[in-house]
Design brief:
InterPro entries: GroES-like_sf (IPR011032). By secondary structure, the chain is α+β, with helices and mostly antiparallel strands. The chain has helices at 39-44, 47-60; strands spanning 7-9, 30-32. It is built from two helices and two strands.
Length: 61
Amino acid sequence: MEDGSRVYFCFPSHPFGSMVEYSVVNKEACIPLPDDLDDVVAASIANAAMSSWGHWCIVLT
């Protein structure tokens, strides 16, 4: 994966978060995005899955 590639990523380590223009993330946590995929659509793809996963984590604790 080249620098500057558009990717979806999850689970950035502290202190790196996702509310930034650039972030440091393990390559294994990145999913390449097609160039023709709209930014708004790309940002919303995992909302349902991540919300369900987050709820499940709360249920387990």
